[in-house]
Write a structure and sequence with these properties.
The complex is a heterodimer of chains A (321) and B (130).
Chain A: H1 8-22, E1 27-36, E2 41-49, E3 52-60, H2 64-76, E4 84-87, E5 97-101, H3 109-114, H4 119-136, H5 152-164, H6 171-182, E6 192-194, E7 203-206, E8 209-213, E9 220-222, H7 225-231, H8 251-260, H9 270-293, H10 299-305, H11 308-319
Antiparallel strand pairs in A: 1-2, 2-3, 3-5, 4-5, 6-9, 7-8
Helix pairs in contact in A: 4-8, 5-6, 5-9, 6-9, 6-11, 7-9, 9-10, 9-11
Chain B: H1 7-19, H2 27-66, H3 72-85, H4 93-110, H5 115-125
The chains are: A alpha+beta (321), B mainly alpha (130).
Chain lengths: 321, 130
């Protein structure tokens, strides 16, 4: 049982000492938990000093130090990411994690694909995603020996094991696993740092375009096409099925952006990775029933569990239209 | 076969949520959670109306495909196993039609506004219908 400062008072106490060193003399105000599960938390607060008020984010996660190093490596490659101000050390007494700048903007996918505020930005978002992903995939994986490295067949086996652990027959998932096994790509010739959750919903968007790429905790070493297939999963198009890339753009623009930096891409495997991504999201939803019945019996958890069927209809469209 | 959690589990959770007391910190999230709770109640109402006839149609189709009897859960487990072994295939029209019919029924309960469901219905009705 982790009793390490899960309460707001404990966090506020630990932050007070720390923030005064990051922004000289600053006090912590407006501490507020934004989201998180059992193992990770995101807190927002203001560092208030004579110079003004700076909104910041405290992220606490078991692999927070690797996440912070990834964000910094991405920043070195001109990927838009929040500025990491401090990586937590044991003497900070706040567990594992980091402090970064808060970036203002929209993350709700439905608004990003529909609102007039982003109409101009939407025209270039897909190309920009391609440019950004090419930069992410150019990070040297040797810098991150602790990241798990998996061949496509190993990822597939992992998710099939997850599905089997639910003990609930899903004929559509079984068909998809079989198709994926039969058409599985070989291990990538050049394994890359893969973001792992690069999608509409994890990008901070302004009228000017992409301001920051968030949620690096699922990063691993693998096939760069995984990120592109995941970005195209219909669940992240928020109702705009015709806009294959995140509900805001076309695949041709994404490819053009990716190749502009000189990176090559095996786009013929895009369908495999879209099917894989759809099934991965479906299995993630299906396993939520176990979480609901054990650690998190909330209405939100139940509602997400019942989203597994949306991936079944998407898999049928992809495999049995 | 309808999905999990069951209507009973969901109703119990919504009721506990509505009876709950919330800390001041949590107030900001309450409006969102109340909307989710209302959506869950709508889902349960749809399941109570749609699932009984759809589940018997599903069981009838599975009995015909598998040539055996059993509960809906047993039939689905046997069906999934046959698909996994390759003795049945999604490429066979009978199997494909069954998977579509079953999945469309699930979506009509779980998420009738989902884009993939609306698009599938539009395809079935033909392009002339809105």
């Amino acid at each position: 049982m982790n009793t390490l400062m899960n309460d707001e008072v404990g966090i506020a106490g630990g932050l007070r000492k720390l923030v005064a060193t990051i922004v000289p003399g600053a006090a912590v105000e407006g501490l507020q938990r934004l989201s998180g599960g059992a193992t990770q938390e995101t807190w927002r607060f203001e560092a208030v000093s004579a110079a003004g008020s700076t909104p910041m984010i405290l992220r606490r996660a078991p692999s927070g130090d690797i996440e912070a190093r990834l964000i910094s490596a991405a920043r070195d490659r001109d990927v838009p990411v929040p500025h990491v101000r401090h990586v937590l050390t044991p003497s900070d007494g706040l567990g594992s994690g980091f402090i970064m700048d808060f970036v203002e903007g929209e993350t709700l996918g439905g608004r990003i694909v529909k609102s007039n505020t982003f109409a101009v930005a939407r025209e270039t978002l897909s190309r920009r995603c391609g440019e950004i992903l090419a930069k992410v995939h150019s990070i040297d994986p040797a810098q991150f020996p602790a990241l798990r490295s998996s061949a496509p067949s190993e990822l597939l086996q992992y998710w099939e094991d997850q599905y089997r652990s639910t003990h609930w027959p899903r004929p559509v998932f079984v068909c998809a696993f079989r198709w994926l096994r039969q058409t599985c790509p070989p291990p990538p010739a050049r394994p890359c740092v893969v973001h792992g959750d690069f999608r509409n919903g994890n990008l901070i968007i302004g009228p000017d375009g992409i301001r920051a790429v968030l949620d690096w905790e699922l990063a691993h070493i693998g096939d760069p096409m995984e990120d592109i297939g995941w970005l195209c999963v219909n669940s992240w198009r928020f109702g705009r099925m015709d806009k294959v890339v995140g509900g805001f753009g076309d695949l041709a623009d994404l490819i053009a952006g990716y190749q502009a930096g000189g990176a090559s891409i095996r786009i013929e495997s895009c369908k495999w990775w879209e099917v894989f991504g759809t099934l991965r999201w479906g299995v993630m939803c299906a396993t939520m029933t176990r979480v609901f019945r054990t650690t998190d019996p909330t209405v939100e958890r139940a509602a997400i569990a019942r989203r597994a069927s949306e991936t079944e209809i998407d898999l049928l469209r992809l495999l049995a239209a | 076969m309808q999905d999990q959690p069951t209507p009973g589990e969901m109703l119990k959770t919504v009721a506990e949520f509505l009876r709950g007391t919330w800390s001041e910190e949590a107030q900001a999230h309450i409006a969102y959670q109340v909307r989710v709770a209302a959506n869950v109640l709508d889902l349960v109402a749809r399941e109570l109306a749609i699932a009984p006839p759809e589940n018997s149609l599903e069981a009838g189709r599975l009995r015909a495909i598998l040539g055996r009897d059993g509960s809906l859960a047993e039939l689905n487990a046997a069906f999934a196993e046959a698909l996994d072994r390759g003795t049945l295939s999604i490429l066979s029209p009978e199997v494909r039609d069954h998977l579509w019919a079953t999945t469309l029924a699930k979506l009509s309960i779980d998420q009738p506004t989902y884009s993939g469901y609306r698009a599938a219905l539009a395809d079935r009705d033909g392009p002339a219908n809105p």
